[in-house]
Amino acid sequence: MQLTELLERRVTRIAEVAEWFADRPFAERREALFSLDRSGQRHLYAVAAQADAISVADLVPAEKSDRAEVRHHGRNTLPVPRAFRTFEKRFCRPDDGTSRLFGYNEGASVRWFGPGYFVAYPVRDNPVWAARGDVVVDYFQVPDRAVVGSWPRVVPNEQGLQRMVFAGTRDFLRRVTDGVSIGAAYKGERALDHYFVLLRDDR
Questions:
Q1: What is the distance between the alpha carbons of residues 84 and 107, in angstroms, rounded to a whole number?
Q2: Nearest partner of 197 among 184, 185, 186, 182, judged by Cα
Q3: HSE-CB of 137 using CA atoms within 13 angstroms
Q4: What is the rounded CA–CA span in Å between residue 126 and residue 6?
């Protein structure tokens, strides 16, 4: 059974989804995740509320050194040209010992809308946000310390055309299974009813 078929059956247990992913190779996981349409991603996000909380260590494993890049392959449901629906969120842990991550969005949209820098951090102390996900990808903030040397220059999201996409936005992440997460996009405090899947690249 394919992942799309599983979700079309309106599966209600995240354990069934996690079992589907077990022992499947990266390429198969990626193909399955990227095949999900908006309805499939919406349902996966709802079911993922049952999963164990995602942490910053799920996004950047503890064994990674500070300022080491970790790539997550993503696909969103935004009403944009197809080339802009696939992207990578690239994360790193800063060198200041805080429980947060720095990151930006790599893909075809960078040329037009900029890197879309963000700071990601746990939201367990904010009950309203915690109901949406366990980690927020916060575009209201950009890195205030050094990032990976090969990354683009850090710029605020209110600058240039990227204000149309990233300014005033927060994404909330839920865990699906190890290395797989799903996010929901919010503009300010308003849910956009758009989602994205992420697959950590451990190859």
A1: 7
A2: 182
A3: 27
A4: 33
Express as a percent the part of the chain with pLDDT over 70: 100
Distance CA(26)–CA(198), nearest Å, equals 12
- 135 close to 123: Cβ distance less than 8 angstroms: yes
Distances 26 to 53, 58, 89, 159, 181 between C-alpha atoms, Å? 22, 16, 16, 36, 14
Average pLDDT over residues 64-71: 98
Could you tell me the residue range of the domain that residue 42 belongs to? 3-200
C-alpha to C-alpha distance for 126 and 105, rounded to whole angstroms: 25
**128-153 burial, b for 16+ CB within 10 Å, e for fewer?**
ebeebbbbbbbbbbbbeeebbeebee
Q: pTM of the full predicted structure?
A: 0.95
| Domains: count for the chain | 1
The whole-number average pLDDT for the span 140-146 is 97
